[in-house]
Amino acid sequence: MSNITEFILLGLTQNPGIQTLLFAVLLVVYLITLPGNLLISVAIFTSPVLGSPVYFFLSYLSMIDSFYSSSIVPKLIFDLISGKNTISFSGCMTQVFAEHFVAGAEIVLLIVMAYDCYVAICKPLHYMTVMRFLHGGIQILLMVQLPFCGPNVIDHFMCDLIPLLELACTDTHTLGPLISANSGSLCLLTLLMLVASYVVILCSLRTHSSHRTSLSTCASHVTVVILFFVPCSFLYLRHMISSPIDKTVTVFFTIVIPMLNPLIYTLRNAEVKSVMKLQINSNILEHSLYPAP
């Protein structure tokens, strides 16, 4: 039985000056991440030009990144400015589930995007729903059964698996490998599978000199895959003990990557950039012709 009703998050630092700086930086990052990803989704959904499956999946990747960032960053920003670094037990479990639910969805979507040449539009959606519920559900079931009887201080800026395991007042030597197998092995096996598939794809593209667009899209996807799966494998494919570098890797994994993804895809994709420019210019022209009263 757990008698803990809330957890205390130590955050990234206890230095007030650095906290203020982090608040400003993370607020700017979040204000870039959310509108950037939403703008890509709206541009793709509203443009008849971007109707191919690759753009369909890209729009969902942007939405997933928005949800992923929003499950962590607003709470972190609030804690930095308010100094109230507490989270309820139910809120902590909800954050763990949301983080791994959305991350599981992104893993499946990245796999589907690697095979978007022959995967039907409707099938991956059912597969994504099943897989992300399965991954997130397993993680939360493993967590909620643990007894927490004190202390309740989490040396992290968010609720995650490893810090919670260290607070459980029971033997977690058996549970640790299960969580590592569920999260770490999923990341590593997916990374290896995608790397193998891209080796085949790149070898095929070498014989087709005209496929520059495909090569550019493939290069963008490989970049996103590496940025996502390498930190994921580092965090979870090892002994379930906190490391001083975990916070830095988690910041990159959960905050920086969702901001980088839209930049990586749009800067390398002429069609998306063209559509976004047209929509922005159209909105500016509309407001200039019909100004608000």
From TrEMBL:
Residue intervals of the G-protein coupled receptors family 1 profile domain: 36-265
GO molecular function: G protein-coupled receptor activity; olfactory receptor activity
Any Pfam family hit: 7tm_4
GO CC annotations on file: plasma membrane
Protein name: G-protein coupled receptors family 1 profile domain-containing protein
Function comment: Putative odorant or sperm cell receptor.
UniProt-listed InterPro entries: GPCR_Rhodpsn, GPCR_Rhodpsn_7TM, Olfact_rcpt, Olfactory_Receptors
Bilayer-crossing regions: 20-45, 101-121, 133-154, 183-205, 217-237, 249-267
Cell compartment(s), UniProt: Membrane
Gene3D superfamilies according to UniProt: Rhodopsin 7-helix transmembrane proteins (1.20.1070.10)
Membrane topology of this protein: Multi-pass membrane protein
Source superkingdom: Eukaryota
Main location per the UniProt record: membrane
Keywords: G-protein coupled receptor, Membrane, Olfaction, Receptor, Sensory transduction, Transducer, Transmembrane, Transmembrane helix
